[in-house]
Write a structure and sequence with these properties.
Elements: H1 10-24, H2 32-44, H3 61-81, H4 89-101, H5 124-138, H6 143-154, H7 170-188, H8 193-210, H9 215-218, H10 224-246, H11 264-287
Helix pairs in contact: 1-3, 2-4, 3-4, 3-7, 4-6, 4-7, 5-6, 6-7, 7-10, 8-10, 10-11
Length: about 290
């Protein structure tokens, strides 16, 4: 079911997501997925209101496409597996909007001349929630639908208190947990993930300079190499427990075929962690 897709290619990701949407909802809104992509791309390319194009270099448009593709695959896999409760069309559509807009908190207004959107790292989830409200309300979405999107976006916060999120229904909660799972796996399974980690460190470093209130938490890593070295621990002690426990093992719906087939995403993440560990071993050998 899954092949390697170039997530820099918006049209290709859109085609994949549209195909999976049509299979899950054969009588769904044939224009919805394309419209949602157009809205999000409009925002990320500086064609919405007075916002500039995204200038955060790690949390860029490709990062959003990676999470979106992973989420669509997960929902598609869950549908094929016949999992219950089945996710209604409305909830899946709101979930796609949520993943497409989950990092809009990195966008800057044209009057915001200092630094890049990375300076908002510590507060980007709340900014994304506010942006989604602004944009979707303008498009005529109901308060209930906007709240659903906001609750799903909350699931992407590293320190999110999941039991405190005011989900309005069970399907919304499942979709939110699927979104949180996809956000983590979509980026960590990237074949270029290890090479992008220095850019992620630079985002943290910029945020610590511009955001004194959160500077302490943003200085968890002392250097690019320190962040890279600690990433396997982040995977083992945060991401795996998060997706396996709090998020309810929804990642198993990425197994191809379900239930016992290989999981491309977990395989790719493990390959990336092995690359980092191998790099550390080589550095130690060189030093000695």
């Amino acid at each position: 079911m899954f092949g390697r897709i170039d997530t820099k290619d918006t049209a290709l990701v859109l085609q994949q997501v549209e195909g999976m949407y049509r299979e899950v909802f054969s009588r769904g809104d044939a224009t919805f997925v394309r419209r949602a992509f157009e809205w999000a791309e409009q925002c990320f390319t500086g064609r919405y209101a007075d916002y500039m194009p995204i200038d955060a270099r790690y949390h860029d448009w490709e990062h959003t496409l990676q999470g979106t593709l992973c989420l669509a695959r997960l929902v598609h896999g869950r549908h094929r597996a016949g999992a219950q409760p089945a996710l209604p069309q409305r909830i899946v559509e709101l979930g796609l909007l949520a993943i497409l807009f989950h990092d809009t908190g990195y966008l800057k207004r044209k009057s915001d001349a200092q630094g890049s959107g990375a300076k908002y790292t510590a507060i980007h989830v709340m900014r994304s929630i506010a942006f989604a409200d602004e944009f979707l309300s303008h498009q005529g979405f109901s308060r209930s639908d906007v709240m659903a999107v906001q609750n799903m976006i909350r699931c992407t916060g590293v320190n999110a208190n999941l039991p405190a999120i005011p989900f309005q229904e069970e399907a919304e909660r499942i979709m939110g947990y699927a979104l949180g799972t996809a956000d983590l796996l979509g980026q960590m399974a990237d074949s270029a993930y290890v090479e992008k980690l220095p850019v992620l460190y630079q985002e943290f470093a910029e945020a610590s300079r511009f955001d004194p209130a959160h500077a302490e938490s943003l200085r968890e890593f002392s250097s690019e190499d320190d962040l890279i070295k600690k990433t396997p621990g982040f995977w083992q002690h945060y991401v795996l427990p998060r997706i396996s426990n709090e998020f309810g093992r929804l990642h198993v719906f990425l197994n191809d075929p379900f239930p016992d087939g290989p999981n491309l995403y977990l395989q790719k993440v493990e390959e990336n962690m092995s690359r980092i560990n191998g790099r550390a071993t080589r550095n130690v050998a060189t030093a000695t």
